[in-house]
Structures are given as C-alpha cells and as structure tokens.
Design brief:
Number of domains: 1
CATH topology: de novo design (two linked rop proteins)
Structural class: mainly alpha
Order of helices and strands: HHHHH
Number of helices: 5
Radius of gyration: 16 Å
CATH class: Mainly Alpha
Helix content: over 70%
Largest sheet: none
Strand content: under 5%
Shape: elongated
Number of strands: 0
Distance between the termini: 11 Å
C-alpha cells in the first residue's frame, strides 16, 4: 500500500488511539486537578501525532525522519509521565501497564518506520505521494 496521506499511516492512527486514552485518564478527579502534570502529558501525547503529521507534510524524507524521531521522543516522555502518575497514585498499575505497553509498541513502530525510510533514502528511493 502506498502512503498518499498522513491518514494512511498506521503509527498516526495508533497515536490517536493512545491520545484518547491519555485524555480519558487525565479527566479522572485527582489527575485532572494536577494541572501541571495533566497539561504536560497531554502536550507530550499531542506532540506524537502532530510531529508525525508535520514531518509527513514536509514532503521530504529527511525532514520526515527528523520529525518521526521527535515523535518517538515524545512517546518516551509520555511513558515517563505515566510513571510519575502511577507513583503519586493518579492511575492504577493496570492502567499504567496497558498504556505503557501501547506506547512501547508505538515507539517500536515509529523506530521501524524510521529505519525503513533511512534504508529507502540510502537506496535513493522515496515515498510516493
């Protein structure tokens, strides 16, 4: 399948699903009142999908790779913030484990896509849009 628009990207779709879960989690009473952590984790998860889209829309694989790396870093930031939320009792161990695993999977998928794009670049092949 050729990727013609960012909506075709599996990593973008997965990042949106995780974003919804983060928002649902941060609406919980204790979490919702910790404005700094709540806003920071929301900004970080929004950054994941936003950087995937921004990089794609640059129509340049080098730029796309750069933005994917930023998105991957933001996914790691969200994982760290989930550890904090768990530590202070805002989320349960089950909630943490579910989201942490999904974020690990997303990071792996982003990393694999970066590797694919790097290989294509080295072989002078580029995404067709």
């Amino acid at each position: 399948m050729k990727i013609r628009k960012f909506e075709d990207l599996k990593i973008w779709k997965l990042s949106l699903k995780i974003t919804k879960k983060i928002y649902d989690l941060t609406f919980k009473s204790e979490f919702s009142r910790d404005f700094e952590l709540r806003d920071q984790i929301r900004r970080a998860i929004i950054s994941v999908s936003s950087n995937i889209v921004e990089g794609f829309e640059k129509n340049n694989n080098n730029e796309f790779i750069r933005y994917l790396k930023i998105a991957k870093g933001s996914a790691g930031e969200v994982r760290n913030q989930l550890y904090i939320a768990l530590m202070v009792g805002y989320i349960t161990k089950i909630e943490f484990e579910e989201l942490n695993e999904q974020l690990i999977d997303l990071s792996k998928q982003i990393g694999s896509f970066i590797n694919y794009l790097v290989t294509k670049r080295e072989n002078k092949e580029f995404l067709t849009r």
